[in-house]
Amino acid sequence: MRQTLRGVTLVLLVAMFAAVGVGIGSNLVAHFRNLFLYNEVLTLVQRDYVEEVKPSDLIMESIRGMLRSLDPHSQLLDASMGKELRDDQKGSFYGVGIQFDIIKGILTVIAPIEDTPAYNVGILAGDRIVGINGKNARGITTADVVKKLKGPKGTKVAVTIEREGVPGQLEFTIVRGKIPTSSVPYYFMLTETIGYIRLTRFAGTTAAEMSEGIDALRKQGMSELVLDLRYNGGGLLKQAIYVSDMFLDEGLPIVSTVGRLQEANIVSYASSRTKLPHPPIIVLIDEGTASGSEIVSGAIQDMDRGLIIGTQSFGKGLVQTVFQLPEDWTLVLTTQRYHTPSGRCIQKPYSKYARFTGDQKESGDSEKIYKSQSGRELRGGGGIHPDVVVEYATTSTLFRNLQRKNIFTLFGLHYAALHRDLPRDFEITGEILEDFVQFAADNGVETTPEELVKKRKEFVETYIKFRIVRSLWGNTEAAIVYAKVDDHVQRAIELMPEAKRMLDEVYLPFIKNNRKQHEQPAQEGAASIPESSDVAA
Predict the structure, then answer these.
(1) Distance of CA 323 to the CA centre of its chain
(2) Which of 39, 110, 125, 289 is geometrically suited to a Cys-Cys bond with 233, CB 3.0 to 4.6 A?
């Protein structure tokens, strides 16, 4: 038995050995020693371990362990998981609504997908999910995350979360719902001239949705644009390139992919597609801005095409290539890194995920300084650093507790059901606050109207109105209400003259003086970039 297993295993190992292309010029002896050692360990475990184990199971675990040692993204998927990976980018699925990463063995939320169950109960970018349905989730694999968090509509999943700055652990119960893969949930005019577009992810129809939104806003008088990429965790790489292409003149670099193989080093340039008539642009980013949305904001920043405001983005800049293997296995393998036009690597070193892992190491002085095309200094070290920092305003513990228990959303549904004839210009009155306080008490949270609005009165009242409006008239009307107390949006309106100055005095003169220099061959555009996408559940 032992000799037979040894023979079979050696055949497999020699095949693996040949597959990686180890030749005579390599350290042949060392490679064979390691392969024989692996064979001996596998044989002894299969023969002498206290319980019977299947050699095939051991080999599969060896492969998975090998991939885990590379990075959190490389993984081997069975037929069903491979199909889910492909289906996620085509339509919709039922789950909790997060884009995630496995960082140092911890399931970490990159961004909650807007208007999904996880978003509505208050899951935040950077939350570390350490338990699922009462079981330890540390060391979980990507495949297991998808299996545990996706599920039939209306079913519940309990998650235990550790959040930086919050002592102990938080418990959330999330009711699974439909997770859309649409990209632009709403757009509207902020002022007579400033349009606003919310872009939540990069799916197969993103470029078309963006074009539709921009055309509609231009008909309403838009000549300046705020592009909101907050909590946009990424998606399809090519769609991120197409969106960047809308704002940059032909021949300008958008993103490069850098890998070990020569053919992996590809630069994508803006094409000759029909362009917008150069509106000033401000892009909103935050810690949930990742991957494809970092490509867009990085290209606009490096080319001095617009202002980036908010907080430092997540720093997810690895390209995964999908390989179809025999017997319906799928290998997702990290093959490249994203770099912005100035050369900044978007991927943040794992040791620097202080906000997301509890690791207190600061990048600080070790970050390299890069230059935009006009010579502005840009910080390296991973992620996109905004031109103007705008932090999220703090909310009270009471507010966060009400949000975590989904009280605001439930009250919005409740109040809307009883007041279908509510006028669109209604305001939050003392009577509505009393109704909210009673509803909160009925759902286990005791408070008073005075305590409720003690901090940030206008914000809390507008947030209640936002939830009622969304239940009655939908996302667009609700977003218009919320924009009035959204610090990032209001700061963008204030800074639009600066974005216009940058356009007129920096970007347009640069294009005029360097147009011929930046005419690049079309074959190095998005069509040459390998497709890549981010995982959601």
Answers:
(1) 23
(2) 110
* Same domain (yes/no): 25, 106: no
Q: What pLDDT sits at residue 144?
A: 87
Q: Which of 238, 257, 236 is nearest to 338 (CA)?
A: 257
- What CA–CA distances, in Å, run from 161 to 109, 175, 262, 426, 460? 10, 16, 42, 37, 25
Known catalytic residue at 302: yes
pLDDT for residue 76: 86
308-359 pLDDT, tens digit per residue, is 999 999 999 988 888 888 888 888 888 889 999 999 999 988 665 444 433 3
| Distance from C-alpha of 456 to C-alpha of 448, rounded to nearest angstrom | 15
The catalytic position among 88, 101, 245, 302 is 302
d(CA 392, CA 388) in angstroms, rounded, equals: 13
The distance of Cα 53 from the centroid of its chain, to the nearest Å, equals 39
pLDDT of 1 reads 45
Structural domain ending residue among the three candidates 38, 69, 100: 69
Residue 104: active-site member:
no
| Active-site option among 148, 150, 238, 316 | 316
Beta strands in 247-347 (DSSP E): 253-259, 266-269, 281-285, 307-310, 318-324, 330-339
SS3 66: helix
Range of the domain at 253: 186-320+337-345+367-392+503-528
At residue 513, the pLDDT reads 86
The amino acid sitting at 19 is A
Residue located via tokens 């609005």: 453
* CATH code for the domain of 263: 3.90.226.10
Asked whether 289 and 307 are in contact (CB, 8 A), the reply is no
- At 450-463, the pLDDT tens digits run 999 988 899 999 99
**Under 8 Å between Cβ of 217 and 275:** no
pLDDT at res. 354: 43
Return the amino acid letter for 115.
D
Q: Considering the candidates 291, 313, 342, 372, report the single residue annotated as catalytic.
A: 291
Domain contains 436: yes
CA 411 vs. chain centroid, Å, equals: 29
The per-residue pLDDT for range 229-261, each reduced to its tens digit, is 999 999 888 999 999 999 999 999 999 999 988
486 is catalytic: no
| 225 domain residue, yes or no | yes
Mean pLDDT calculated for residue range 409-421: 88
